[in-house]
Q: What sequence folds into this?
């Protein structure tokens, strides 16, 4: 998809040149990994969730990540305030509904966060289906059907929430409700390292921090993670696995150019 | 110990095939490492501690890890509720009394968790002695005496708490109060990486999630960590140390088969 | 600077021989990395922040780290109590004002921590300037001017706070208000791994735990991190980056002798 090449190079250059501050309210399990992936990509991460400093932190940021892994009532209150600040200042909000299907507490939290709108949602298929409250998609389908179904599903979710929705997995479907991108980069080993979803959300936020075109920004962030994973995986020697892969994943994200990402991108577009 | 070989292979296969959900209420220092070790082993970790979602999280899990590193009053309340849920649904509870000797707050927390019973306790010698409130074991003894004493100590603790007790260190003693296993796998470098004890507890929980025989499950989880550590350590080159070792430790846990664990296992059984 | 050689060797040996307990009240993003760096260096880290156990934890420690990354009101209350305990028992307090310029909440927290005195402050230039409330240093200057200015700045801050102040960056300036050390060890890659500042603070605390001479202790901790980083960086092969570098950083800290640190140290002293 040659059309993205110029965009990807521009996005990457803008991140490296402006080092955008990306404010995360996120879980304690993968927060260090998210900070590292943002640094490797050229951005400036900050993690902070005390309510009294939310106005200052979010107000100074170029993007806001809300990630509900290990969420509690205190963090939710800070997230809702941060989202208000971000909306009032046109700072993009990137929402990661980690494990939202696991409890009604997370479902209510997600509803509150989504009520007044976010810029981009990134989740896996189960998470995004739960957000939509719609179990009619993708059950019992084979992978080809899932491919078609996942694109339609992402488009429907994007229309319903009025934002870009990225449904990631073996296949990634990213839609703004009008145009949908289906992409197939990535490797199975990504599922054996905790936080690769959270880190993908962070990379999307780094891109959204420097561009108001959220559809290419989301495709770019997802593709960066997946291409880095492909490059890391091919370097593994016999007997190596998720531990060495994770170290090499950061190496590759650090070394990726926008052009590398564009060249390796395997995706197609479709209209809703 | 040929008798374990079949069990270990079965346990590993069951974990990989059923991908059991293991709910952790644990510390923020090593939670990412515990999630990664569970993924490498084939299980599905989830970390969550908001009281409002405990019933859903623990209720959906196949095992519950309670780890009191960085514990506070809020987490303790969630742990006690999670333990109630686990007991009512016959979900195994694996308790890690991290640093329990360091404060009376932790000792009271441990007493509350233990009051209504857990399935397996895994701690080092100092932690387990503190739980037992018994300073008569193992002081001023040489390592051979410690070897005998540690087995008897584990058996006594198992009898007192009515569960499997695993006392880990240079020597591991695991007992259900009747049969005690003494095992010697492992390497010194494990003491130079934070969270290897927590990770061992997670591996035990992965096994207990797929088997109600908690004594072999505990021996299996401990041996998996120690054998992986041995395999990682022999690969280190001159000048490498805990950083490279840790990455390779995850690689090895990912690549271990049940048979690998059984073959490398160095342990003997004794009756109480 | 041959004069430090003996000190550095003595400091390292004392850490390894006495394995001092270093109590951290710190952020959840880099706490695992700080624990690992302390273990690699030979010390015993503990992270704990529940108010009810602060007296026991700090009271048993040989040094106290207060790090305000991801601070909240609850942690601040624990920090203030821990600082009281440390002062009453002559336990050194090492303060890391992470991101203090980012919010008035952090500035107030820092003022409360500093009010009754700490032993050592370690921060970057922006953080230390914010503590001092003085914007007159270092703006618009070239790097040579910064070099001179940073030494004077560190000395001024040390005089104002009545403690050792370490201002770290491309150049490190460490002062007790009388003598100031300017040092230039380190590599750019340190800025691409989250928590290298926090980890440096931990290494300083390991040294302060075994010596009441806080100026050489601070220089030693900073130089240990920077020399380890230099040794790690030169081992990187084409295509490697922050992920592999981080693993090797822990390896090198583990393998560093006091003499290694002294030999590689590039620093000069100046009087205030």
A:
């Amino acid at each position: 998809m040659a059309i993205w090449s110029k965009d990807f190079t521009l996005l990457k250059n803008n991140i490296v040149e402006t080092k955008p501050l990306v404010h995360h309210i996120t879980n304690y399990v993968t927060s260090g990994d998210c900070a590292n992936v943002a640094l490797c990509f050229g951005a400036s991460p900050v993690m902070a969730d005390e309510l009294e400093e939310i106005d200052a932190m979010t107000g100074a940021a170029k993007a806001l990540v809300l990630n509900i892994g290990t969420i509690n009532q205190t963090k939710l209150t800070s997230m809702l305030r941060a989202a208000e600040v971000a909306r009032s200042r046109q700072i993009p909000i990137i929402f990661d509904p980690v494990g939202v299907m696991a409890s009604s507490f997370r479902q209510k939290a997600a509803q509150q966060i989504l009520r007044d709108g976010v810029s981009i949602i990134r989740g896996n298929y189960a998470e995004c289906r739960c957000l939509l409250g719609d179990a009619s998609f993708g059950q019992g389908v084979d992978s080809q059907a899932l491919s078609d179904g996942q694109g339609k599903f992402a488009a429907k979710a994007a229309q319903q929430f009025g934002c870009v929705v990225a449904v990631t997995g073996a296949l990634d479907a990213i839609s703004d409700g009008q145009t949908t991108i289906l992409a197939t980069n990535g490797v199975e080993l990504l599922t054996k390292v905790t936080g690769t979803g959270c880190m993908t959300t962070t990379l999307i936020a780094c891109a959204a921090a420097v561009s108001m075109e959220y559809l290419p920004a989301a495709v770019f962030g997802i593709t960066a993670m997946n291409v880095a994973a492909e490059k890391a995986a091919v370097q593994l020697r016999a007997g190596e696995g998720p531990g060495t892969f994770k170290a090499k994943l950061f190496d590759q994200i650090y070394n990726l150019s926008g052009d590398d990402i564009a060249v390796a991108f395997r995706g197609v577009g479709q209209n809703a």
The beta strands of chain A are 21-25, 44-47, 63-67, 93-96, 120-124, 164-168, 172-175, 179-183, 267-271. The interface with chain C takes residues 28, 31-32, 35-36, 39-40, 45-50, 52-53, 56-57, 60, 74, 235, 246-255 of chain A (CB under 8 Å).
